[in-house]
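User: Could you go from structure to sequence for me? I need the amino acid at each position, not a summary. Structure tokens:
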């Protein structure tokens, strides 16, 4: 017992001395231990626990014990809760306890542009509608209002971590931290005047200040986010990479999203997009590449060899008719592959349950192989593999002792959930965002019994609707 208490003290001291916020601070989960003194901050008891650990344990009548924001014990309820005292207990009987979902690619303030321009290809959508709308509307207040709307949508649907790239990203980080979510948040760099900075040099300096400000935060992982190879010059891509290297910060970027992008890069560099990024030394195990619709076998090998995380956005790619990413080939190679919604202006929601369902079905019909992407693989892409894509798999993505307590509880009482035969099948093909009952991030309850606790839903909707007429007027 003395050795056990010393181990737990060291573990908690480690958390306090080294905040779990950057890729460099990623760590290996500790083995399961009893809670010292028989006390815990939170116990989730009685549900079916889908751990997504290496053994893919599914524990019926299980329990998850949380202390100081971390999971300290996962197991069968009777064994885990014996002689255990908890400050707070959540009864999960009849429900499913899962790792919080991980959205690997978003532009969260664009919730305020939801539906302003649909049924267009990417280039027309961007150049004729989105870029002009951003130029006329986006400022810090806009970003804060849109972020709060997106955060409420995330929490309501069980998403606990998201990877974002947009303008005024410091405001996104501030609102995210206040709401209690976890985010890998990238300050956007682009080679033309943007809403927050008129020159690349200004944006690069701002990105450095942003990284320095947030790099030790418990919830926020600050990132550098050059927009794409066709909107950022080679010189500026290298400058972004150098900044990332300096602070060991993630690099978030759109990669090979459309055929137009591939053609542009080939014309300018005589290389495919991934090949070009590799040739300039851009790719490494801190890069998070969104989309990657057009990558051949050699490029997939490069992504895997370099440890690049990839964010697959099936619904956005379908809606913009961008194409179908080679997901089965990436899975076969072991690429770090997660799911993203993209921004709500091109999706038009932030619902990862729909992305799971779409990813599994899209690749079945595209390959004419019903085994192309299984339900379990799709669910993994939204949890542990999403964590791998963000290079945070030792911190989040599964329910294991030593990881942060990012947890969602899903109600399985609805008609569309009845009866249950295969848990992964139900989670991917039957579950809706509205089935999410309770959400916890870093041990803090953000939603309980479907009621948001850290955000004011009525105020958020009111603010969003006030922007509606302003945006309509700006597009006339």
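Assistant: Here is the amino acid at each position, in order:
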């Amino acid at each position: 017992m003395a050795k056990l208490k010393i181990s737990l003290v060291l573990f908690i001291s480690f958390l306090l001395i080294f905040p779990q916020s950057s890729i460099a601070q990623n760590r290996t989960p500790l083995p399961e231990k009893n809670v010292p003194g028989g006390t815990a901050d939170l116990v989730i008891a009685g549900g079916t626990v889908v751990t997504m650990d290496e053994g893919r344990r599914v524990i019926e009548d299980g329990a998850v014990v949380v202390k100081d924001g971390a999971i300290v014990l996962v197991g069968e309820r009777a064994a885990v809760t014996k002689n255990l005292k908890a400050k707070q207990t959540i009864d999960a009987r009849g429900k499913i306890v899962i790792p919080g979902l991980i959205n690997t690619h978003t532009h969260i303030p664009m919730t305020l542009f939801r539906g302003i321009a649909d049924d267009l290809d990417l280039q027309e959508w961007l150049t004729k509608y989105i870029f002009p709308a951003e130029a006329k509307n986006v400022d810090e207040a806009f970003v804060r209002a849109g972020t709060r709307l997106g955060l409420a949508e995330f929490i309501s649907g069980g998403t606990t971590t998201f990877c974002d790239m947009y303008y005024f990203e410091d405001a996104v980080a501030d609102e995210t931290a206040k709401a209690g979510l976890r985010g890998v948040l990238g300050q956007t760099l682009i080679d033309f005047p943007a809403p927050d900075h008129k020159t690349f040099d200004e944006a690069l300096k701002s990105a450095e200040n942003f990284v320095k400000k947030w790099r030790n935060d418990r919830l926020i992982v600050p990132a550098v986010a050059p927009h794409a190879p066709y909107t950022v010059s080679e010189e500026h891509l290298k400058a972004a990479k150098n900044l990332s290297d300096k602070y060991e910060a993630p690099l978030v970027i759109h990669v090979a999203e459309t055929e137009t992008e591939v053609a542009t890069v080939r014309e300018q560099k005589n290389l495919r997009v991934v090949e070009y990024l590799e040739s300039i030394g851009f790719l490494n195990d801190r890069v998070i590449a969104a989309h990657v619709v057009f990558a051949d076998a050699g490029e997939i090998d490069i992504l895997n060899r370099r440890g690049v995380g990839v964010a697959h956005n099936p619904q956005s790619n379908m809606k913009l008719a961008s194409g179908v990413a080679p997901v089965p080939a990436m899975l076969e190679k072991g690429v770090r592959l997660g799911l993203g919604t993209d921004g709500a202006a091109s999706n038009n929601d932030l619902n990862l349950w729909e992305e799971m369902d779409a990813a599994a079905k899209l690749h079945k019909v595209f390959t004419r192989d019903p085994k192309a992407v299984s339900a379990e693989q799709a669910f993994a892409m939204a949890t542990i593999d999403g964590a791998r894509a963000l290079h945070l798999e030792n911190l989040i993505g599964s329910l294991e002792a030593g990881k942060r307590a990012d947890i969602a509880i899903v109600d399985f009482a609805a008609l569309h959930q009845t009866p249950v035969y295969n848990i992964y099948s139900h989670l991917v093909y039957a579950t809706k965002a509205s089935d999410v009952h309770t959400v916890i991030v870093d041990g803090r309850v953000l939603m309980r019994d479907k009621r948001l606790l850290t955000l004011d839903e009525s105020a958020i909707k009111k603010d969003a609707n006030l922007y509606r007429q302003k945006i309509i007027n700006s597009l006339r």
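One structural detail worth keeping in mind: Residues 37 and 271 are 61 Å apart (CA to CA).
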